[in-house]
């Protein structure tokens, strides 16, 4: 039916009023499109012609409102309101005017989708707040004022849910609201005592009446309050205490999903903040919550069943490839990871998708396709609802409405529109199925039956035969190990979900282990890990959702017990095994810092406990990736230590920043300090300084500052001396690095290489350090300086340290005295630290081991740097040996032989750490390398003629 008579009626009215129609062709074209697409606008204009005339005259049809403008316009509508009927009438008139404006701008394509959704959401919010601003004072005068124990008047908290919570409201949407108040109590200043529960329930009822009752003027918004605790059976408003009890003990899983978009839109800001703080741990778990996939899969199954039952598969919101599936994709990943990543705790689904793409949690192609589909489907939804201001999501069945919808979407006919719609929905369905597909589907094959029959355990003989048939070396011992694990699971009392997940996982573990080079070893190690996590069913859910993780875990466990030991301590590391692109590609320094930024973003600066947890999770996850790439040969040996060192450096830099920020907030910054930034420097010694960290290395640290004036103080509210400030700064850094949290220790720290060792001050001034090195340091301390370099802190002090280091290393030393002191120190260390014996060789301290090479390099630097200052350029042994070779200071192939031996010994050191036996190998291994190193040592330190003896090795 044509709506042109409505337009002709308005034109006649306008002519009678002397109102001129805009001559702008754009207006004429827009009017025709809007009339074709929206019965609601056409009939509203005919019924209330002055409203449309006002919109034209004000220019509001062609402009976007600024912040606060909609609220200001509502205030003028409500200025003269004095009772509830007047409030209802004013709200409805305002809503009608603004809805005409919003629909006009949407259909005429004067506003993008985001603006339309934002305007509709803002309209709902200002109407809720405007109504409440009148209803509350009227309620106070009628019933009295509810007060908190401190005497302040309590306000009704209105929590927006669903599309309103996400500021994504569509044209004829319900608004989902939950009502709350701060605390229980009794009103004493009213006509009779009234509990807070009674007061706020009555107030909420009046608010619903003001918004949702259908009067001669229509309604403002339909309101759905069934998402509240206990649903329709629950009280309309609850205290925060009662709500907390409900969400902690009785809430259902789907309510977590609903709460993702929860956002306060009215109430005291302090009470609103308390409510959101209370809800956060219910919605976002601190662990990776992969159990959410099961819940959402089941919820989607129920939705599909209901749509099929009612013949509503064409529903663009709930049907296949519809809006809800896009929301499920984004919000499922929010629930899984939002507890660990506060940046994902946002409301808008489009913003969520973009952030998931930025964090590589969704492929960028998927993000682009889902976002495009969301925009398309939401525009279709708005066009459907603009037609008659009805809440519908179903495509029209009659040809006239179909043509109007197609043309409103910019298509010539229904066929071309439905082709575009189908393409979007198919892409959404593909991405949805990829994320929510039942993981067991991959594993359904004939050979799986063999492993499925092994769990739960059959009788012994059958199990042993099946294990033998699967290729396990010692099936009898393995059966006993599996039986032991089964008993432990029973004793620990797994939940029904836990048993179900374990029954899905175990056949896959058995299959993956059988395919390893050492199947018995792999399975035993994985079962040991499972014993520590089996009661934490969220991790079982993760493994059930990602069979590839089980395969990677089992294969890496076969190569090294280090993996399962670390994951048993920190099961959250399982997350690193999900993405194989990440697992075998360790990050370099810039990438590490970026990832650390993302991990710490959103944390409260005062929440040191969470910062420490995240730092530990970061460090261990990065080490895990290095170890995976190392064991599988993706990265060469010499790069392993580079990666491990860069991880430690990134952590130390961030720990310094955290400790500095906390102390400056309390005491201010030190004054009269040399440097351009903090006036503080962290120097790495040993393996950290030499860029040679291993998997279990501690950090040798020395702390220096640039303050020279004894009386200098910080400039903050609680000033302390510079010396105290820097001492506390170092202590806090050590505390952050070494304190054991649920995720373990970040790094062990050794500060005994500072001047005067463990008896000396923890932090020394740069001047005092230089004086000590020149006048009091032992030869072994100069040896240590060979491997020292700035790690974090003030760049000016870093340059000054390097100048001091070069000057010390380039001093002349008497060759014979130097040789003797280095030799005696090494022998003393060997006696005290060498753990060789009993068929084992100590890679570090054994004769011909790593320490012998390090001492020879340090001796060579101190011996020849005075004549060859370039020996002070490097801190790592390989480049120092290459420099010695280039300068021909070690004759013939000695330097190259030491490089080869050092690389081989270091590789064995890494492997021994990953095998759970740090620095120990069988004494029959690497004999040629060890003998060669020892021969060079003897020639260098124990012969009477240095060069002559070395030449004998040539």
TrEMBL record:
Glutamate-ammonia ligase adenylyltransferase repeated domain ranges (all copies): 33-271, 551-802
GO MF, one annotated term: [glutamine synthetase]-adenylyl-L-tyrosine phosphorylase activity
InterPro entries to which the protein is assigned, alphabetical: GlnE, GlnE_rpt_dom, NT_sf, PII_UdlTrfase/GS_AdlTrfase
Key words of the record: ATP-binding, Ligase, Magnesium, Multifunctional enzyme, Nucleotide-binding, Nucleotidyltransferase, Transferase
Reaction(s) catalysed (UniProt annotation): [glutamine synthetase]-O(4)-(5'-adenylyl)-L-tyrosine + phosphate = [glutamine synthetase]-L-tyrosine + ADP; [glutamine synthetase]-L-tyrosine + ATP = [glutamine synthetase]-O(4)-(5'-adenylyl)-L-tyrosine + diphosphate
EC number: 2.7.7.89, 2.7.7.42
Adenylyl removase, as annotated region: 1-440
Region (Adenylyl transferase): 449-954
One record GO biological process: regulation of glutamine family amino acid metabolic process
A single GO cellular-component term on record: cytosol
Domain (PII-uridylyltransferase/Glutamine-synthetase adenylyltransferase) ranges: 306-436, 825-911
Cofactors, names only: Mg(2+)
Family: Belongs to the GlnE family.
Physiological role: Involved in the regulation of glutamine synthetase GlnA, a key enzyme in the process to assimilate ammonia. When cellular nitrogen levels are high, the C-terminal adenylyl transferase (AT) inactivates GlnA by covalent transfer of an adenylyl group from ATP to specific tyrosine residue of GlnA, thus reducing its activity. Conversely, when nitrogen levels are low, the N-terminal adenylyl removase (AR) activates GlnA by removing the adenylyl group by phosphorolysis, increasing its activity.
Family annotation (NCBIfam families): PRK11072.1 (NF008292)
Protein name: Bifunctional glutamine synthetase adenylyltransferase/adenylyl-removing enzyme
Gene coding for it: glnE
